[in-house]
Design a protein that fits this description.
With 251 residues, the chain is α/β, with parallel strands linked by helices. The chain has a single domain, classed as Rossmann fold (3-Layer(aba) Sandwich), CATH 3.40.50. The protein contains eight helices and nine strands. A six-stranded mixed β-sheet has the order 5-6-7-3-8-9, with helices on both faces. A three-stranded antiparallel β-sheet has the order 2-1-4, covered by helices on one side. Strand 6, helix 6 and strand 7 form a beta-alpha-beta unit. Helix 3 packs across helix 5 and helix 4 packs across helix 5. The mean pLDDT is 87.
Length: 251
């Protein structure tokens, strides 16, 4: 029987969107009498998804399809309104789901490695042994003691990726992190990610780069309007998505 590290059953997530507040008296009065209601955005609808140990899963879809929300649900950042989410106990999970998540802008890169490492279960003693390797991989040796608020988006991404992959996690969640940075670092990051995959890390990748997903993943999930439109072998789902032209198809 296949061991599933991540299980999502009938997951629903929605958000309230409110129009920009108007300063006009009439709009204020309309809001007071209930004529101006919050809009409800359904980010995920009845999503069932099982991710097996060692699987390489890619998630594709247009902007607003629910891809990043799905990754945040897996990471435990978002709690669904309905349904259940479970991650196998005792497994280490490294989420790169937002640029610089867990970093404090006033702290240096070095200090943020200790801070972020603690969230990944890396002790201070282990971090002292790994910090130079993290600095070398991210190519930030001369900037490691500068506040991260002075970093560019590419520097953020390099440090975050180097930190999250400095040791092999059981589960790695990536949300477009390889889309930031120069092509040389992207190639180096891909090589490290491929090594982690060969060593058994379960990887879930959100990306608009369909070629990347088709070549690096053995399975693709196509999200549309928060629902799973297709789930299967990467070549088949990628071909179906390409035939759609990235258009949102009506169910």
């Amino acid at each position: 029987m296949t061991a599933h590290l991540i299980r999502l059953e009938d997951v629903d997530v929605s958000f309230h969107r409110r129009p920009v507040q108007s300063r006009r008296l009439w709009d204020h009065l309309r809001a007071r009498v209930g004529q101006r209601r919050a809009l409800r955005l359904h980010a995920l609808r009845r999503v069932c998804l099982h991710v097996a140990a060692g699987e390489k899963l890619g998630i594709v879809g247009r902007n607003g399809a629910g891809k990043s929300t799905l990754l945040r649900v897996m990471a435990g950042v978002i709690v669904p309104e309905r349904g259940s989410v479970s991650v196998a106990s005792g497994r280490t999970l490294a989420p790169l789901i937002e640029l610089g998540i867990g970093f404090h802008p006033e702290l240096s890169g070095r200090e943020n490695c200790y801070l972020g490492g603690s969230l990944l279960g890396i002790s201070s003693r282990e971090m002292r042994l790994r910090i130079e390797e993290i600095a070398a991989f991210s190519e930030l040796e001369e900037f490691l003691d500068e506040p991260v608020k002075t970093y560019s988006s590419g520097m953020y991404a390099r440090l975050a990726f180097a930190l999250a992959t400095c040791r092999r996690p059981d589960i790695l969640l990536l949300d477009e992190v390889l889309a930031v940075g120069d092509q040389f670092f992207v190639r180096k990051s891909l090589a490290r990610m491929q090594r982690l995959m060969r060593d058994g890390t379960t990887v879930v990748i959100v990306s608009h780069n369909l070629d990347l997903l088709a070549t690096q993943c053995n399975r693709l999930v196509w999200l549309e309007h928060g629902e799973v439109r297709a789930d299967g072998p990467s070549a088949e789902v990628a071909a179906a998505y390409r035939r759609s032209g990235g258009r949102e198809l009506k169910c």
